[in-house]
């Protein structure tokens, strides 16, 4: 079930990057990032109200975890910029490759409080195939 959900997330990300990129082409990079996040804030606020959820913060949450929102702003901004010059498929392919490398490093060393999940050499085959695919996309 979770693997199918992850595939669905991938589909949504492709649609989101496309919409964000087209919006940025029409109104500019900075304003589009602002609008995307205002709409996101509005949507999650609406969902919280409908579900009658109260906002509760646990104690001792590391402050750096709250930076994810700022990272999201940069993510949308750079996706919009790359979309204009690379298109959807190359933007997402390069982004997913970066995510794969970063997640492999985080897992291997147990960074950011994650459990250690040592890197297996067999994964290099997958990384190599992904990189070959990206190179082919760059050429053609």
From TrEMBL:
Organism this protein belongs to: Clostridium aestuarii
PANTHER family reported for this sequence: INNER MEMBRANE PROTEIN YDCZ (PTHR34821)
This protein's UniProt keywords: Membrane, Transmembrane, Transmembrane helix
Residue spans crossing the bilayer: 34-51, 63-86, 92-112, 124-139
InterPro entries: YdcZ
Ranges in coiled-coil conformation: none
Protein name, as recorded: DMT family transporter
Top-level taxon of origin: Bacteria
